[in-house]
Amino acid sequence: MSFKLQVTQQVLSMSGNIVSWYLIDKTGRRALTLHGTIILTAILWVMGGLAVGGTKGQLRGAIAMILLYSFFYNASIGATAYTCLTKTATSRLRVKTIAIGLAAANSIGVMWAFVLPYLFNPDRANLGGKLGFIFGGLCFPSIAFIWWYQPETRGRSYEELDEMFVKKVPARKFGEYRTEAETLGLARVADVKAV
Fold first, then answer.
1. What structural domains and CATH numbers belong to the chain?
2. pLDDT value at residue 175
3. What Pfam families does the database record attribute to this sequence (predicted)?
4. What is the DSSP string of 22-65?
C-alpha cells in the first residue's frame, strides 16, 4: 500500500509541476504563490483535523490531504519559489542572494529532518497527521509576508525590477506600476501611429 501511495504522490507532484508551467505565466508569480499558500494552509488544517479523530476513515482522509498537498505545492509555491528568488534579487547581488536563499532553505530542511521524527513518531510526541496544525499555523505568517513583501515579477525585465526597487514601489503595486521603459515604449508607439 505504501508503495502505491508513494507512486501516486510522485505522479501528483509531477502533474502539479506540469500545471504550473501554464499557471506561472497566466496568473503571475505573486498571485500563484499567495493563492497556493492559502490552499496549502487549508489542506494542512483539514489534514490536522482529520488526524485528531483517529478513525480509519479519518486517517485515510488525512492521507488524501497529503496527496492533494503534493499536487498543489508543486502547482504553486514549488514552482514559484526559485523563480521569485532569481528575479527579485538586484543584478549586483543576484549570485549572493541566491546562495544565501538556498543555504537558508537547505538549513531549515536539515533542521526539520531532525525535528520531524520526534514530532511524528509514536514513541515520541506522536503527533502524526496533527502536524498539519503546526505547519498550517506556520503558513499564516507566510501568507502575511507574501501579501506585504512578494512583488509581481511576471513580464518584467531585470532592469524594470531594479527601477521599481530603487523607486521603493511597494511590492503589492509592482503589477500595476508603469516603468520608464514602458512609458517610453508607449510614447514611441504613439509617435509611429501618428505618422
1. 2-155 (1.20.1250.20), 156-195 (no CATH)
2. 87
3. Sugar_tr (PF00083)
4. HHHHHT-HHHHHHHHHHHHHHHHHHHHHHHHH--HHHHHHHHHH
